[in-house]
Amino acid sequence: MARPLPLVTARQITVARDAPEPVADERGDFYQWLGETLVGRSVSIGPAGDTVYITSEELTYESFRIADYLGRTLPTGRGPQFLVIDLAATPYSQLCESLLIGVADTVRLWAAQAANRSLAILLPAFPHARSEFWPALRSLADGREPAAKLVVISNDGTIRWLHGDSGSLRRDFTSVYPLKQDPPQRDPRERMSGQIVRRLGHYASRERNGPLCKRYFFDTGHAAPEIAELAERWLRTTVLADPDVPGDLLLLSKDRQTGLDEAIAGIAADLRLDFGTFDSEGGVFGPDGKPLDGVTIHSTVVLFFAVVSKRQKFERIIRNMRREGIRLAPRAWTVLATDDEAELADTVPPLDVERTVSRKASRQQDCEQCTIGLPHTDPLREHHTLRTFDAWEILLTSKWGEERVAPTPEGSFFRYAPDMGDVFDNYGNWIASKVISLLRTRGLAPASTVFVFPDEERIKRLLVRISTLMRGRPVTIRIPSEVLGHRTSADGRSAAGVRRGRTSSDIWERQLHHLRGSRDKVVILDEFRASGHTARAMLSLLLSREIHPVVYIPILDFSDETDLDGLPVHPLYRIRATRGGA
Question: Taking the model in full, what pTM does it have?
């Protein structure tokens, strides 16, 4: 009979973070590599879950016990188990002796329950030789099975074996470990895809065969770092590496999209090159926005586009610039090409495309929005609410079904409602950008905003999109369903039956305690408001802790009320409906 695979379970502890967050997939890959390296054969990897959340304030409490937070998250069960306690991401200056000793004592009790349990503790650096951390761990060595491992590893790859055979350890472990700790970032093209926002609207476009209406506008404003990385890589390998291209270059960006302009202006500054912009007719402008005469431009011009949709538009720009005597680089570059990449394949000069996307277009005489008299949308202005036409396209192209979670045991379910999880999967970036836009119009800095929302899977999908566009980890406080009095449509019972026993059930209370008295702006976020019970439960919870939110944002609002007990309500879309209706 084959030996069972050792189960590797990891717990990542973060100190001084404002909120727990899911352990990154890349970190899970690292844990599997570490387990296989230390065990010497294949392992089974368990879910890492959320980070174990501890604040610097809690470390100063005399009553602080790491077992209260960590102990309940440790795996149980029989068979060979390998536990990884990961403190590597926390600077050593933020750790303290009480925390390290508490970790050692907690895992010592866990490992003592079975002689075949192995343990690895990952630290940014080793504690002092006289730290009580070491004796607590060394006491574990007695009675261990020979196959069990007990190691401590620092971020520089130094490893201390307190028990077990190190014979299977690869010889280059010390040099490889730091590289595995900090894996290379994803390709910028992949990262850029997550930052591009596809905005629905009614966009006018003039083509050779007549005016068109386009359904989408691709906003690259959030992707400036990725655009800069890709554009500079292209510039260096394609233009600057060409010996026939003179060194005096003028970099020009088009479309007035913030992401592109910022990226190209930054590249020009770094390389000490000139920068400007150009328009759809090939007119050139200096960095101050003043027009430049072609005869005064003596540099070789390199063209950068955010979006190129049609070959004739691209060639018109080229033709007009050449007519003005402007010398162009042998190639041009664009972030996106829409509709038909094959049409752009033979442009002169050649156009290098980073990504191709599809953009729905129709002749104006066939455009539904023109037929009902809707005005065209300004592509450079994003409003934080949803137009009715767009809202219903989103809803009618998403899944529908019976509502699965409703407030209070007496509350009724929508018999037919949009699956907001599906909505966020398909349109999440755009909806997230509208939430961010709404915060800014309210004078709120998204980075200093605390989002309070029900701990439900669908709304968490939207928070992932918001976090991606914000390029950070916004502080999020997830209120458990049982606290809000929710019940599920699956069995009619309170959601508390499903949530009971979750190890993070007290995290929201600790977060609210730390939030009290802070200057952070608190926003209540929800997928939709119907009866208002969920929103009022969250508001009451905050007020009872002397926390005063500044706004309530439901994505859809089925209520006629314009406020929530005096709190401003700003839905992305409002429609009148009632629960339990036909």
Answer: 0.81
